[in-house]
Amino acid sequence: MSDWLSEKPWLSSYAPDVPHLIDEPDGSLVDMVFRSVHRYDQATALEFFGRTTSYRELGRQIDHAAEGLRRLGVQKGDRVAIILPNCPQHVVAFYAVLRLGAIVIEHNPLYTARELRHQFEDHNARVVIAWQQVVDTLATFPSDLALDAVISVDITTEMPQSQRLALKLPIKKAREARAKLGTAPTTKSHIAWDRLLSKGSLKRKHPKPAVDDLAVLQYTSGTTGRPKGAMLTHRNLYSNAMQGRAWVPGLTEGGEVFYAVLPMFHAYGLTLCLTFAMSIGARLVLLPTFTTDLVLEAAKKNPPTFLPAVPPIYDQLARTAEHRGIDLSSVRFAISGAMSLPVQTVERWESVTGGLLVEGYGMTETSPVALGNPIGPSRRPGTVGVPFPSTEIRVVDPADPSVDRPQGEEGELLLRGPQVFQGYWNRPDETAETLLADGWLRTGDIVHVSDDGFVTIVDRVKELIVTGGFNVSPSEVEEVLMQHPDVVKVAVVGLPRASGGEDVSAAVVLKPGAVLDTGGLRDFARRTLVSYKVPKRIVQVEELPTSLIGKVLRRKVREDLISAGKRSKASRDS
Question: Can you give the pTM of this predicted structure?
Answer without folding.
Answer: 0.86
